[in-house]
From TrEMBL:
The chain crosses the membrane at residues 20-43, 89-112, 132-155, 176-195, 207-225, 262-280, 300-320, 332-354, 360-382. NDH-1 is composed of 14 different subunits. Subunits NuoA, H, J, K, L, M, N constitute the membrane sector of the complex. Residues 396-454 are annotated as: Disordered. Keywords: Cell membrane, Membrane, NAD, Oxidoreductase, Quinone, Translocase, Transmembrane, Transmembrane helix, Ubiquinone. InterPro entries: NADH_UbQ_OxRdtase_su1/FPO, NADH_UbQ_OxRdtase_su1_CS. This is NADH-quinone oxidoreductase subunit H. It is a multi-pass membrane protein. Its EC number is 7.1.1.-. It comes from the Bacteria. Its main location: membrane. It comes from Streptomyces litmocidini.
Length: 454
C-alpha cells in the first residue's frame, strides 16, 4: 500500500451530517452495543445451560430474557466497597478507563454502504458514524488503551492477587495484539486501504475469508485471547486468582468491568465481520437472486446476523474447551501465532507484488509452492541434524556425578536432570512392632528392659 492510495480515498460523504444527526448516530451505536450485550449475556447462559443439559435462566421476563437486566440492577444496588489500602482515585478511574475505549471502536464500523443509502428524518446519510483513512489503526489504538484500565485496577487495589491478575492480563493482551496487527496488515495489502468502508467495498467480488484464510484463523484466535474469554481467561481464572484483577471490586465498578468484556466481544466480532466476512454484504446465495439485498436497511440485518454468529462462537468455545495453562497461552501467542502471522504476511506481500507486475497466477502458484517446499526441506534438514546431535549426546557418558546438596557449604536445589539422594526414613510403627524380641534390631536399656534400636 502506497501513500497515494490513501490520499486518493474519497471519504467526503462523512463529516457533512448536521450535529443532531451525528448525535442520533452516536446514540444508536451506544444503544446497539448495550442491547447486544444484554442479549448476549442471556444467550450465553441459555446456550451453556442447553449444552450442559440444564434449564438456565427462566424467571425474569418471558423465557428468562430479562435476566441480564435483573443482574445489572442487582449489581447497582449492592454495597459499593472501597478497600482501605486502595489508591482511591485510580481505583475509581480504572473501570471507567476499561469501559470507555470498548465503546469507541464501534464509531468506524460500517452498518451499511458508505453512500447516502438511508433517510433519517428527511436527511440522506451513510449507515456509519464516521470513517478515517486509518480507521483500523484507530481500532488498534483504542483497544490498547483499554489495557491500562485492567492494569491500574490490579495495581490500585493494594492487594497481591489483583496485581498478578492485572499483569497477566496485560501480558496476554500485548502478546495477542502483535499477531492481530499482522493479520490486519494482510487485509490492508489486499484492499489497499485502512478505511473500514473501503475494506468492505474491496470484498464485493470475494470475501477476504476466502482469499486470506490464515489471517482469518489468526484473528479468530487472537480476538478470543484479546477479550480474556475461555479458554484464554487466565486473568479471571477462579481457581488460582479468585477473580483476577477485579477481585477487590464490587457493585457498579465490577459491573463496568463485566460490561467492558462483553462490549469488547461485540466490537471484535464487528471488526471480524468488516475485515473478513464481507461486512454488511448479504451472503452469497442471497445476493445472487435478490438485487436489493445490499440496499436500504437490509445491510444492517446481514451485519447483525454475522455478529451474532460470531458471538455464538464465543459461547460455544466457553462451553466446550477447558482452560489452558498460562505457559501454554504465552507459547501459543509468541511461538506459534506471531511467527505464522509474519510468514503469512510476507507470503501475501510477495503474491501482491507479483500480481502488480502482471505475472500470471499459475506462475505465482509455482513460485509460492517452490518457496514452501524449500522451507519444508530446510526444516527437515535442521530436524535431522538436531536428532543426530541429540543421539550423540545420549551416547556419551551416561553416568553423571552424584548430586551433593551441601557441596558449596550451604544447601542448593538440584539442577535440571539431577535428583536428590534418597533420604533415610524411620521405620513405621507397624514395622517396629514386628521386630522379634532379642533379635539384632533390639538393644538392652540401662534398666534391663529391651527397647527398639531406633
Amino acid at each position: 500500500m502506497t501513500p497515494n492510495v490513501l490520499a486518493a480515498e474519497d471519504l467526503s460523504m462523512f463529516g457533512t451530517d448536521p450535529w443532531w444527526l451525528v448525535l442520533v448516530k452516536a446514540v444508536f451505536c451506544f444503544a446497539f452495543l448495550m442491547v447486544t450485550v444484554l442479549f448476549s449475556i442471556v444467550w450465553e447462559r441459555k446456550v451453556v445451560a442447553w449444552m450442559q443439559l440444564r434449564v438456565g435462566p427462566n424467571r425474569h421476563g418471558p423465557w428468562g430474557m430479562l435476566q441480564s437486566l435483573a443482574d445489572g440492577i442487582k449489581l447497582m444496588l449492592k454495597e459499593d466497597v472501597i478497600v482501605r489500602r486502595a489508591d482511591k482515585v485510580v481505583y475509581v478511574l480504572a473501570p471507567i478507563i476499561a469501559a470507555i475505549p470498548a465503546f469507541m471502536a464501534i464509531a468506524v464500523i460500517p452498518f451499511g454502504p458508505a453512500g447516502n443509502e438511508v433517510s433519517i428524518f428527511g436527511h440522506r446519510t451513510a449507515m456509519q458514524l464516521t470513517d478515517l483513512p486509518i480507521a483500523m489503526l484507530y481500532v488498534l489504538a483504542v483497544a490498547s488503551v483499554g489495557i491500562y484500565g485492567i492494569v491500574l485496577a490490579g495495581w490500585s487495589s493494594g492487594s497481591t492477587y489483583p496485581l498478578l491478575g492485572g499483569l497477566r492480563s496485560c501480558a496476554q493482551m500485548i502478546s495477542y495484539e502483535i499477531a492481530m496487527g499482522a493479520a490486519f496488515a494482510s487485509v490492508f495489502l489486499y484492499s489497499g486501504s485502512m478505511s473500514t468502508s473501503k475494506i468492505v467495498e474491496a470484498q464485493a467480488d470475494r470475501w477476504f475469508v476466502i482469499l486470506l484464510p490464515v489471517s482469518f484463523i489468526i484473528y479468530i484466535v487472537t480476538m478470543v485471547g484479546e477479550t480474556n474469554r475461555a479458554p484464554f481467561d487466565m486473568p479471571e481464572s477462579e481457581g488460582d486468582l479468585v477473580g483476577g484483577f477485579n477481585t477487590e471490586y464490587s457493585s457498579i465498578k465490577f459491573a463496568m468491568f463485566m460490561l467492558a468484556e462483553y462490549v469488547n466481544m461485540v466490537t471484535v466480532s464487528a471488526v471480524s465481520v468488516t475485515l473478513f466476512l464481507g461486512g454488511w454484504r448479504a451472503p452469497y446465495p442471497v445476493s445472487t437472486f435478490w438485487e436489493g439485498a445490499n440496499h436500504g436497511w437490509w445491510p444492517m440485518l446481514w451485519f447483525v446476523v454475522k455478529v451474532q454468529l460470531l458471538l455464538f462462537f464465543f459461547i460455544w468455545l466457553r462451553g466446550t474447551l477447558p482452560r489452558v495453562r498460562y505457559d501454554q497461552l504465552m507459547k501459543l501467542g509468541w511461538k506459534v501465532l506471531i511467527p505464522v502471522a509474519v510468514v503469512w504476511l510476507m507470503l501475501v506481500a510477495t503474491v501482491r507484488a507479483l500480481r502488480n507486475e502482471n505475472i500470471a497466477f499459475s506462475n505465482i502458484v509455482l513460485y509460492v509452492a517452490g518457496a514452501v517446499l524449500a522451507l519444508l526441506l530446510l526444516s527437515f534438514v535442521v530436524d535431522a541434524l538436531r536428532d543426530r546431535k541429540a543421539k550423540g549426546a545420549a551416547a556419551g557418558p551416561a553416568e553423571e556425578p552424584a548430586f551433593d546438596p551441601m557441596a558449596g557449604g550451604f544447601p542448593v536445589p538440584p539442577k535440571p536432570g539431577q535428583s536428590l539422594p534418597p533420604v533415610p526414613r524411620r521405620r513405621s510403627r507397624y514395622d517396629r512392632d514386628l521386630v522379634v524380641s532379642g533379635g539384632p534390631d533390639t538393644a538392652t536399656a540401662s534398666d534391663g528392659k529391651e527397647t527398639d534400636g531406633v
